[in-house]
Amino acid sequence: MTEQKKRLIIVDCSSVIYRAYYALPPLTNKQGELINAVYGFFLVFLRILKEFHPYYIAPAFDLPGPTFRHKQFKEYKAKRIAAPPELYQQIPKIKEILKNIGLLIFEKQGFEADDLIASIANYASQTQVLPKIETIILSGDFDLLQLVDKQTRVYMLTKGLKASEIYDIAKVKEVFGFFPKQVIDFKALAGDQSDNIPGATGIGKKTALNLVQKYGSVFNIYEAIKKGEAWEMNSKTKDILLKNKEQVFLSMNLAETRKDALSDFNFEKSKFILNKEQLKQIFEKNELPGLSNKI
């Protein structure tokens, strides 16, 4: 990797682990323990090494327990079905391997991995290090598209572990019809069933998209209504928005990733040096010979 192109890969580990668990058939080690999520996670990890040759890697994990969002809205993610214990039992093994290859794990009580990812990406974009750091977020979570900017792209796992798309600003606009930062406005209006974000009750995705495209943001929408300038908005939509105003702004807070979850980010501690022999030994020790062959 030349000094002209240093890449930071931020890994949304919880998202990748979840996809790996459901994408692969049951694989067990000699002790009879499931390791399909471990295998799938590092299968994607090796692909990222090959495609992007990262200079820095930052793996971010969710921790069990409530976050600040649950304090704002106790029903946050309340409808989400918990993953089976066989998935959670594989997470410590993944963390152990990441630490053994010299990577620093990022996790913080009260915050989601999304907030840690946003904080690291923001720090990378604000740093005065030259040349500028190019950030790529590895995830299967479309919520993180709100972080896409000139320096940050999302490598999105779209179907299982094999299919993927790289999202830059133009790709987000092409696929969804709005710009990355407007993901927050869209979710504030349409809600999000998977996270149980309420949105404006009665506003569907099509109406939410039209509103975001016409007015640009939730703030602009309510400002236009306040000034009597929402001429293209029908009375029913206007009534719904006014009735749900408090809920819409709550949904904005729930949908937006926090960029202050970390006070600092040390690039040197996240520098990744590939030691093929060491990695091969670690995979073989953890009964992942199929992976050591791919190195």
C-alpha Rg (nearest Å): 21 Å
Sequence of secondary-structure elements = EHHEHHHHEEEHHHHHHHH
End-to-end Cα distance: 18 Å
How many β-strand stretches?
A: 5
Q: Strand order within the widest sheet?
A: 2-1-3-4-5
The helix fraction, in percent, is 40-55%
Assign an overall shape: elongated
| Count of helix runs | 14
Question: Stretches where pLDDT falls below 50 for ≥5 residues?
Answer: none
User: What is the averaged pLDDT score?
Assistant: 93
Biggest sheet: strands, sense, closure? Answer: 5 strands, mixed
Which SSEs are present, and which pair or pack?
Blueprint: E1 7-12, H1 13-23, H2 36-52, E2 56-60, H3 68-72, H4 85-88, H5 91-100, H6 113-126, E3 134-139, E4 152-159, E5 163-167, H7 169-176, H8 182-190, H9 205-215, H10 218-226, H11 235-243, H12 245-255, H13 276-285, H14 289-294
Parallel strand pairs: 1-2, 1-3, 3-4
Antiparallel strand pairs: 4-5
Short description:
This protein is an alpha/beta fold and 295 residues long.
